[in-house]
Amino acid sequence: MSTSTTMWVSLPAEHRERLMRIAREVAFPAGTRIFEEGGHADRFWIVRTGTVGLDMHVPGRRPPVIETLGHGELVGWSWLFPPYLWQLGAEAQSPVRAHEFDALAVRMMCENDPALGATVGHWIGRVLAHRLHAARIRLLDLYAPYGSGAGAGG
Predict the structure, then answer these.
(1) Can you give the pTM of this predicted structure?
(2) pLDDT tens column, 78-114
(3) Closest CA to 106 of 74, 132, 136, 135
């Protein structure tokens, strides 16, 4: 689990508590598609137990898993940015229990409380940067010619 994606626990307690007031507990059996790339992003989750695989559509191939998320990690960031469409897909790799958040409610809370909005925006920005890097590395691992330098540049 990376520091950037577990930042949920480093959000100020007051902001985390406010968000938790609107959370609901959900469960996904192993193999459940949580969302599909290109679908409407209207919620997000914080994993309590289990693992979720994030995958990416690659024409002519099975979607590769870009990253596996576990306890305390954010599933879904596309809900924060118009046009609110999932940029990746997600599937429960094992039975998952999670806190689910309604995206519209959270966006409204952020709009009404600039400090909360800034904190959430920073958190999602860090997650997004991490996921972009993970996707790049994973796709290079899968599809780049041997020796092309997955570790090069940044």
Answers:
(1) 0.84
(2) 999 999 999 999 999 999 999 999 999 999 999 999 9
(3) 74
